[in-house]
Specification:
- The complex is a heterodimer.
- By secondary structure, chain A is α/β, with parallel strands linked by helices.
- Helices cover about 35% and strands about 20% of the residues of chain A.
- Chain A has twelve helices and eleven strands.
- In chain A, the strands form two sheets. In chain A, strands 1-11-10-4-9-8-7 form a seven-stranded mixed sheet, with helices on both faces. Chain A has a four-stranded antiparallel sheet with strand order 3-2-5-6, with helices on one face.
- Chain A is globular, with a radius of gyration of 20 Å.
- The longest helix of chain B has about 40 residues.
- By secondary structure, chain B is mainly alpha-helical.
- Helix content of chain B is about 75%, strand content about 0%.
- Chain B folds into two domains: about 160 residues, no CATH class; about 240 residues, MetI-like (MetI-like fold), CATH 1.10.3720.
- Classes of the chains: A alpha/beta, B mainly alpha.
- Bound molecules: adenosine-5'-diphosphate and magnesium ion.
- The site of adenosine-5'-diphosphate has 13 residues of chain A, from strand 3 and helix 3.
């Protein structure tokens, strides 16, 4: 039995999982030819050296974070993190609460800018362009790197206006017909169109939680981003709504790089291709999802995925 | 026995009752270790006993204090000689007053005669006896009440529910004080206003275009018979309120937007207390600022532009009132903006909105009902504002919408009608109540609308 299967067996309250346990059936991970770090330092020593186990590099990287540090005042929240993300993958960030997953995620679209005490150093490039460069407008960046939040946050506007918001501010539609098209296709791709097509002018806040979250996804893809960041997008949803969002992530990963923060290892196992494990601001281990759950290389990673760290 | 001593003894008794009650409850179940067998925590049995010791005794005390003077006076009057008993009410009052003063050892008016001093002695006697009875009965009731409560303590007595019930009653009593006061004020204003409407038809008051409340005091006096058309006052009020809002709403709103969304926390930490200082300046200070600084300035500026400006222009009063209201508008708008969940802000920023787009397209629309509610509250504040307009707006009841002319307001007229010696049943005085009633109705409606709007908007995010 793999570790993933053991974990899933422990969780009984999730109806969604039985139909979705596919990823764990693939058996032991096969080496896909990625370069591996052979030495396995003990955890204490490792925390001091700050080296990441596994491979932070990937083929055809699109987002490249190099030696990123984040400080909130004196609090060193992200410590020298290097990570590459390619365009057609879903990468999951996991780790105990407060380890800096959200902080790292917010670096990628410069949402940390609006936090007064936050200071980011190191370099992050998006398609070769330095996103912390002087000539880069964070507003334009956020149109390219969309974000879905933990709690569904539709605007107190109609469903239509929620989705049309981004295209409107970015001037993506020349006329009303084009805007209609964008709204419909975005809702369609977010798997929400059938449920709401007769009530597009009703307030988005009147939808159920899962629908609201899909509306937020539709709102995000309406501006046609290159990367989608999701910060625990299912933690406020019930298992069925969660399953729908996970399906959606599968489909969206064809077109977008998706970075998802999750507390559910089942979810990470189901939706992601790679997993990055954070601990106290350090990126401890990055690897293929199958491998990290079946054969974690680092003691801390193993402790976390087997439930010994909270 | 002195009143304070009595109160102190009562307090001590109920304090003791607390410990007796608590002790008994614990003893009944066989010691503190078994106190889970009690329905409530032991302390509640203590409070239960103390309340029954204190409350009935206080009721007796209160009743006695209310009734004592009447009873004593009745007894004294009964003992007076026949001639004095048949005096008129006023003279009898004077006599009783003398008796009481004499008993207290104070100077009296008129001659001291035997009957009088005898009555004073009896008054002293009655008072002493009454105090003794009071002390005895109060303490007896306190002891009895405490003892009965103490005996009624059983492990299954729902002491907590009893005590909480009494606390609830006390809370209700306290909160009804404010409500009853309001009702009392409204009723008294209403009745006086109705008396006014018996003298002056309500249609003339509501629709008359002429306000000159000088009535002839003597029948043969030459002069005005008074006219009470309130329209000029209300247009004056509206004009000044309008000018004030014209200043306060944009400035206050922009202040709130800047402080809530743009300023660094350092600026906010300085600016917010400063705004509160502005809100704390007494309106009388604003008043003389308006009358002595702003009004002459408005006049000079107007004249240099070739305009004719009254020295007490509506503009000067309105401007200063607007400045006074800025903190109110900005703090209510600030609340409304801050009540918009930061998830909205993040969502908009995450889609690539600029701060200005986030503000105008997401935050302000979401905060708008709250802002409107705040503005309505500010309007009702401006309408009711008195001091500034008394000092800066003038008394001439001109029916005009020209901000450079002098106008008067409802509140100013209420003040002038009631300042000085007045007959309380002349139309002139009663007119103040009618104006007050109108003012009350208008601000009440605005407040209700404002509060309803604000509340409805709060519900959106709960
Ligand atoms: N806005 C903020 N201001 C100051 N410190 C913050 C802020 N957000 C997060 N932190 C700190 O940064 C660290 C990482 O937090 P976060 O990235 O939210 O962790 P995670 O998402 O993994 O639970 C924590 O120590 C947290 O206290
Ligand atoms: Mg987080």
């Amino acid at each position: 039995m793999t570790i993933v299967q053991m974990m899933e067996a422990k969780v009984t309250d999730r109806q969604a999982q039985s139909s979705r346990a596919g990823s764990s059936d693939e058996g032991p991970a096969i080496d896909k030819g990625v370069k591996r770090t052979p030495a396995l330092p003990a955890s204490g020593q490792f925390v001091e050296t700050g080296m990441t186990v596994g491979d932070v590099r990937c083929q055809d990287p699109y987002v490249i974070a190099e030696n990123v540090d984040v400080f909130y005042g004196a609090n060193h929240a992200i410590k020298n993190v290097t990570l590459e993300i390619s365009k057609q993958e879903v990468i999951a960030l996991i780790g105990p609460s407060g380890c800096g997953k959200s902080t790292f995620l917010r670096c990628l679209n410069r949402m940390n800018d609006s936090i007064e005490s936050a200071r980011v150093s190191g370099s992050i490039t998006l398609g070769g362009q330095d996103i912390y460069g002087k000539d880069l407008d964070p507003v334009a960046l956020r149109a390219r790197v969309g974000m879905v939040f933990q709690k569904p946050n539709p605007f107190p506007k109609s469903i239509y206006d929620n989705v049309a918001y981004g295209p409107r501010i970015h001037g993506l539609a020349a006329d009303r017909a084009e805007l209609d098209d964008i709204v419909h296709s975005s809702l369609e791709r977010a798997g929400l169109l059938n449920e709401v097509k007769d009530r597009l002018d009703e307030p988005g806040t009147g939808l159920s939680g899962g629908q609201q979250q899909r509306l937020c996804i539709a709102r995000t893809i309406a501006v046609n981003p290159e990367v989608i960041l999701m910060d625990e997008p299912c933690s406020a949803l019930d298992p069925i709504a969660t399953a729908r969002i996970e399906d959606l992530m599968d489909e969206l990963s064809q077109d977008y790089a998706i970075v998802i923060v999750t507390h559910s290892m089942q979810q990470a196992a189901r939706v992601s291709k790679r997993v990055a494990y954070f601990h106290l601001g350090l990126l401890i281990e990055v690897d293929e999802t199958d491998r990290i759950f079946t054969n974690p290389q680092h003691k801390l990673t193993e402790d976390y995925i087997t439930g010994r760290i909270g | 026995m002195q009143g304070t001593t009595l109160i102190l003894i009562l307090a001590a008794m109920s304090f003791a009752a607390f410990f007796f009650g608590r002790g008994r409850s614990v003893a009944l179940v066989g010691g503190p270790r078994h106190s889970t067998a009690l329905h409530s925590l032991p302390g509640y049995y203590g409070y239960f006993t103390a309340i029954w010791c204190l409350l009935p005794a206080l009721a007796v005390l209160l009743l006695w204090v209310l009734l004592e003077p009447r009873i004593i006076v009745a007894l004294i009057v009964k003992g007076l000689p026949e001639a004095q008993r048949s005096l008129s009410v006023g003279e009898l009052d004077l006599l009783l007053n003398n008796i009481q003063n004499l008993a207290a050892g104070d100077a009296i008016s008129g001659d001291l005669d035997a009957a009088l001093s005898e009555a004073a002695t009896r008054f002293q006697d009655y008072t002493t006896v009454s105090r003794r009875i009071l002390a005895a009965s109060t303490l007896a009731v306190a002891g009895l009440g405490g003892a009965i409560a103490w005996r009624r303590i059983r492990p299954d007595l729902r002491a907590r529910n009893r005590v909480e019930g009494i606390v609830l009653l006390a809370l209700i009593a306290a909160s009804s004080i404010a409500i009853l006061t309001t009702v009392g004020i409204v009723l008294s204003v209403l009745f006086e206003a109705l008396r006014f409407f018996q003298k002056v038809p309500i249609s003339e008051f509501l629709f008359g275009l002429n306000w000159s409340p000088q009535t002839a005091i003597r029948a043969d006096q030459v002069g005005s018979s008074g006219s009470f058309g309130a329209v000029p006052l209300f247009t004056g009020t509206m004009l000044i309120t309008g000018i004030a809002m014209f200043v306060a709403v944009p400035v206050g709103l922009m202040t709130a937007i800047y402080l809530a969304e743009y300023s660094s926390s350092r600026v906010r930490n300085i600016a917010k207390p400063l705004l509160e200082v502005l809100a704390g300046i007494p309106t009388v200070v604003y008043g003389f600022f308006a009358a002595l600084t702003v009004a002459p300035w408005v006049r000079r500026t107007g004249e240099s532009l070739g305009l004719e400006v009254a020295s007490e222009s509506a503009l000067a009063a309105g401007l200063v009132m607007g400045i006074m209201i800025i903190p109110l508008v900005s703090s209510l708008a600030d609340d409304a903006i801050n009540a918009v969940p930061s998830a909205m802000r993040d969502g908009a920023l995450g889609l690539g909105s600029t701060r200005a787009e986030t503000m105008t397209r997401v935050i302000l629309p979401a905060a708008l009902p709250g802002i409107i509610g705040g503005v309505l509250l500010a309007v009702s504040r401006a309408i009711g504002e008195t001091m500034i307009v008394v000092m800066a707006a003038g008394l001439a009841a001109n029916l005009t919408v020209n901000p450079f002319e002098a106008v008067t307001t409802v509140t100013v007229q209420i003040v002038t009608l009631l300042v000085g010696d007045q007959e309380f049943d002349s139309a002139k005085t009663l007119a103040a109540f009618a104006l007050g009633l109108m003012l009350f109705v208008v601000t009440l409606i605005l407040n209700v609308i404002g509060l309803v709007v604000v509340r409805k908007y709060r519900e959106q995010y709960d």
